[in-house]
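Page 37, continued from 36.
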């Protein structure tokens, strides 16, 4: 017997607003019945688990023990700029002059996530 990963749950102060941010990040829709004011909202990914946003009363106080790592379809640097334009904050820049590395960002509620190199950028470095 095994278990299947159903969703990745993210605690937050405003489930609908944070889910809207992540919907724009991933280009994927909210759950069909989700609406402003809901205490639980989903972002339905193309494959894999759902991103599940659950409204909780307590604020985030420390670094995440679990975070999302994003691999953009295009350029890592262009994706970082796009996400900053959506409301993310740059927390740490581990990008290297040779094109390696990653950037650590935070969503509008302070949850950390990483932006990695795209598959094409990785392949170019390995060639």
């Amino acid at each position: 017997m095994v278990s299947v990963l159903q969703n990745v749950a993210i605690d937050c102060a405003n489930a609908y607003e944070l889910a809207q941010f992540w919907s724009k990040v991933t280009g994927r829709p909210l759950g069909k019945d989700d609406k402003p004011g809901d205490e639980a909202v989903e972002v339905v990914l193309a494959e894999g688990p759902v991103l599940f946003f659950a409204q909780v009363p307590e604020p985030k106080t420390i670094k995440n023990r679990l975070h999302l790592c994003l691999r953009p379809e295009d350029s890592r640097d262009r994706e970082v700029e796009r996400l900053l334009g959506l409301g993310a904050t740059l927390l740490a820049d581990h990008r290297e002059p040779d094109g390696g590395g990653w950037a650590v960002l935070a969503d509008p509620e302070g949850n950390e996530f990483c932006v990695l190199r795209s598959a094409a950028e990785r392949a170019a470095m390995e060639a």
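Residues 15-26 form the longest helix (12 residues). Flag for discussion at group meeting. The beta strands are 7-12, 40-43, 50-55, 68-70, 89-93, 103-106, 112-115.
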